Amino acid sequence: IWQNVPEAPPDAILGIAAAYKACEHPQKVNICVGAYRDDNGNPYVLPTVRKAEYRLLEQNEVKEYLPIEGDRDFVYCAMKFAYGREMDIENHVAAVQSLSGTGACMLGGQFLAQFWGSDHPIYVPNPTWGNHIKIFKQCGLKVRKYRYYDRSKNALDFEGMLKDIKRAKDGSIILLHACAHNPTGCDPTMEQWKEIVSLISSKSHIAFFDSAYQGFATGNSEKDAQAFRYAVSQHVPILLAQSFAKNFGLYGERVGTLSIVCGDVVQKEHIMSELRSIIRPLYSSPPRHGSSIVKTILMDPALKEEYYQECAKMAIRIKKMRKKLEEALQVAGSIHDWSHITKQIGMFAYTGMDEAMCKQLTEEFSIFLTTNGRISMAGLNNTNLTYVANAIQTVTAG
Ligand code: LMR
């Protein structure tokens, strides 16, 4: 009876990760998915995460359902982590636990489609994380793009970005990457953020921040939250999708939050009730292990301090690999200017390689990356660096 079901195309990111797994080349390299690897190319569990897990085991943590909106202590800690100590969470933030950043974007998109109206388009940066477009379309929102990155200059197209946000009809939703823009690794400066926020405010737009890399971009969680904290200080209506996948290395635990900054406690309770109504038929309530880990770390000052250092270490290793890649490309004989690799921040380098070059890297060298030229810097290490640099020099030389 299912003969009319067509085969869907593989996912642009996770489909390539699956192809990497199936590949038998001894020197295969995975620089596709944004997941941290240590210097031996192995997945990394943060020591504080392990410590928290031992504690949970000792405490005989139960496996009961969480409330629909998730673990309240976790959500409270997550909000303090995001918005800072000063924020009046109790009165001004409606927040629920989500299935990582993807789930948070989905909940936010559904909320906006229902309560802001599907005739208000959502503007996403061009380019953006491919899943954003799928998520918001599935929520019934009209998805449009604003200029973000100038490929000819390998830099932010700030003028184009402002023009497009200005041209968008009043009351549009503007999706912004809070830090470490995926895929470009290129963020506005704080001065530029101020201009963006002021423009959004003057157009009565809603700012929807996706924060997937807090602490991972600069190694400093406070600094990486500056953009949306500034937007809050300017009373711009904001939604925030928060993920703990990268900064806590909790990829498979699916832990995050969606929060909506609101006027008062009555609005907050109304929004909470509607978010519960969205969540219940979708997945009832979120999983508890990941959020218990984050809560255990954030509620213990000593563990939290250790965590900050571990997160900063990951950011520093990636930063070092950027320098090493730029140098290795020079040593490999490349005459191109690769300086953008060290200017970019976060998990990814947006190399400027085109689709044909990326496909050649995969077909001839078993180096797996997304076809937009994005490299997950975390997949590079001292063992595979020269191999990758030589291959990039080969495919970009002509
Ligand atoms: C990525 O961009 O590689 C990550 O955010 C993983 C994903 O889910 O796409």
Automatic annotation (TrEMBL):
GO CC entries: mitochondrion
The reaction(s) this protein catalyses: L-aspartate + 2-oxoglutarate = oxaloacetate + L-glutamate
Residue ranges occupied by any Aminotransferase class I/classII large domain in the UniProt entry: 27-392
Keyword Nucleotide-binding: no
Known EC number: 2.6.1.1
EC category name: transferase
A GO molecular function held by the record: L-aspartate:2-oxoglutarate aminotransferase activity
UniProt-listed GO biological process terms: amino acid metabolic process
Ranges that cross the membrane: none
Cofactor(s) the protein needs: pyridoxal 5'-phosphate
Keyword Transcription regulation appears in the UniProt entry: no
Keywords attached to this entry: Aminotransferase, Pyridoxal phosphate, Transferase
Subunit structure: Homodimer.
Family: Belongs to the class-I pyridoxal-phosphate-dependent aminotransferase family.
Protein name: aspartate transaminase
Section of the entire sequence shown: 154 to 551 of 556
